[in-house]
Each structure stands twice: as C-alpha cells, then as structure tokens.
Design brief:
Elements: H1 2-14, E1 38-39, E2 43-44, H2 50-53, H3 58-83, E3 91-93, E4 98-99
Antiparallel strand pairs: 1-2, 3-4
Length: 101
C-alpha cells in the first residue's frame, strides 16, 4: 500500500513539469508585474546589476530558476525515497508478470 501511495505522489509531482495552460487563471494575490523582484522594505534586489544591463534576459532567468527549483524538489523526493529503503520491483503489471525491462 505504501508503494502505491509513493507512486501516486510521484505521478502527482510530475504535473509540475507539464506545460502551462494557455488560459489565464485568476489568483487572489495582488502582484504588480512592474515591480519585478521587489521586496517591501528593500526594493528590487539586484546585486550584480543585471536588470540595468540585460533587462530582456530577466524573464528567461526567472523561468530557469523555476525549472531548477522543480528539479531540486524532485531530487529531494528521490533522496527521501532512497534513504528510506523504498524499492520498486519494476513490474508494469504484477498480475501478468510483465516487467519494465
């Protein structure tokens, strides 16, 4: 039963890597896109000055940071599974004795 729950959570986590939906979803957060990276008491945190020198690369850096964060979350989940000695036997269909490879 625990293996099924772990497998279901892995499948649910895979949806983080799915492409974004094309429609806009309404959120309750009040985010001002003109103040990118702004923190209330500090303002925009840009120690290397990239927003001034390369403003067109900011959106790409933001997307790359999200991707790396998702990969890091998957890596932590894999580490937790490994260190708890959870093993998957590799069957696609145990009733038909059909293995993955």
């Amino acid at each position: 039963m625990f293996k099924l729950a772990a497998f279901a959570s892995l499948l649910a986590g895979a949806s983080a890597f799915a492409p974004a939906q094309s429609g806009r979803a309404a959120t309750s957060l009040a985010v001002n896109e003109l103040e990118i990276g702004a923190t209330a008491p500090l303002g925009v945190y840009d120690p290397l000055g990239w927003l001034d020198t390369e403003p067109e690369a900011f959106e790409r850096r933001r997307a790359v940071e999200r991707k790396h964060g998702r990969v890091a979350m998957a890596a932590v989940l894999g580490s937790i599974v490994h260190h708890n000695d959870i093993e998957f036997d590799g069957y696609l269909s145990p009733s038909q004795n059909l293995k993955f490879s």
